[in-house]
Amino acid sequence: MGRPVHINRGVHINRCVRIVKGVAVTLLFAVIALCLAITIIPPFLDRIYYEGPVSRHYDGAHFLNPDGAIETPAPPGTSRQGFIARWLVGNDDRPAWPIAIAVKPARPAPFAAPRGMVATWVGHATVLVQAAGLNILTDPIWSDYASPLPPLGPKRVAEPGIRFDDLPKIDLIVLSHNHYDHMDLPTLKKLWERDRPRIVTSLGNDAILKAQGIPATALDWGQSVSGAALNGLAPQAVIQCGNYEHCPDYRVHVTRNHHWGSRWGTDRNRALWSSFLIETRAGNIFFAGDTGAGDLGWPYEAKRYGPIRLALIPIGAFRFWKGQMASDAHIGPAQAVEVFERLGASTAIPIHWGTFRLSYEQWDTPPRMLELYLRCAGIDRKRFAPLRIGQSLPVPTVSPVPIGAKRCDERAIRALE
């Protein structure tokens, strides 16, 4: 009777040995895979989007801000790694946002009148500007998530202010940089397949688009391109447009701002970021893109191209801990008002708020704070008033911005901290 027990015990021991060996082999392969990942993945993700001559904002490998590097400090009393981990899992004590915001989508006209200009806020940094027969989109995103791995990452709380199928034919897209909430490849691909729009961006971003079969024109700060050249005509061709519909009589200037770029972390600053000044027969349009303050000299640079009828200026995602009023990468309402003044713009629309929960402020803190800072500067609210997502603004013609009595309610501002 003892012999079978001895045999079973031996079988059991052999089975345990095989399991231990299997686990050991698995662990060995896991360690090897991890080592290979550490060695291979960062260079794989560190794509080279651009190669060109060294300049004051390009060192031959990476772009930089000549007015100072972007710093991303952690909230007081915490580590940067711990803060990022809590942010990723949603355990960073951010004020709650609404789950959804009611939106009444607009149905834009096919194009604006010859000297007319109409702007419709689609959400975040996406605005449809219709000017002198042109239809222009800024940083278009119709996706539900601003993320490389949806459904992970920031989710849209408000539907786009224009249904994609209700968009008029798009003539021009300006694309500020390669972050996912600004360079949304699924949307760009749909727009290219439907309308074949001209796309203007800054250096390096065209390589990302080209990999998706989307052609684009990439320029450095201070460079420009005419609508004629974008449409295959002689750069200085005289354009005659009887009805102005989709008339390529415009010029896009790529202008400086203060930000950074990355798709995967390890490819940081391999492509350039920018703002834009678009000259049209209806007047000049300035799109700030995504930006911090930096030296705040860049609004003056855009102003040199002439009076600005419409400016699109970000006011949100500026707060990463309680009381913060701006970050290196994002201006808040106080600095947005200063940008508006330095541009000398006639009318502005606040953007980059109320669509994706990216930072610490409450959903409606940016527009409420903006109104208070406009009072501090003595600027009439209607000159820089927030729109509802889906709301259209017939942009007034250029006129000087009168400065009235300055009434600064510091207590009300602190209440929004």
Structure notes:
- The protein is an alpha/beta fold.
- It has nine helices and 13 strands.
- Strands 6-5-4-3-2-1-13 form a seven-stranded mixed beta sheet, with no helix packed on it. A six-stranded mixed beta sheet has the order 7-8-9-10-11-12.
- α7 packs across α8 (365-377).
- The longest helix is centred in the N-terminal third of the chain and has 44 residues, at 2-45.
- The model is unreliable at 1-7 and 36-41 (pLDDT under 50).
Neighbour order of strands in the largest sheet: 6-5-4-3-2-1-13
What Rg do the Cα atoms give? 26 Å
**Helical proportion?**
25-40%
Element order, helices and strands? HHEEEEHEHEEHEEEHEHEHEH
What does the average pLDDT come to?
90
Sheet-strand content, in percent, reads 15-25%
Low-pLDDT ranges: 1-7, 36-41
Q: Distance N terminus to C terminus?
A: 81 Å
What structural category characterises the helix and strand content?
A: alpha/beta
Count up the helices: 9
Largest sheet: 7 strands, mixed
Keywords:
7-stranded mixed β-sheet; 417 residues; single chain; globular; 6-stranded mixed β-sheet; 9 helices; disordered N terminus; alpha/beta
SSE layout:
Elements: H1 2-45, H2 80-88, E1 117-123, E2 126-131, E3 134-138, E4 172-175, H3 185-195, E5 198-202, H4 205-210, E6 217-219, E7 224-226, H5 227-230, E8 251-255, E9 275-280, E10 283-287, H6 298-303, E11 308-314, H7 333-343, E12 347-351, H8 365-377, E13 392-394, H9 410-415
Parallel strand pairs: 3-4, 4-5, 5-6, 10-11, 11-12
Antiparallel strand pairs: 1-2, 1-13, 2-3, 7-8, 8-9, 9-10
Helix pairs in contact: 7-8
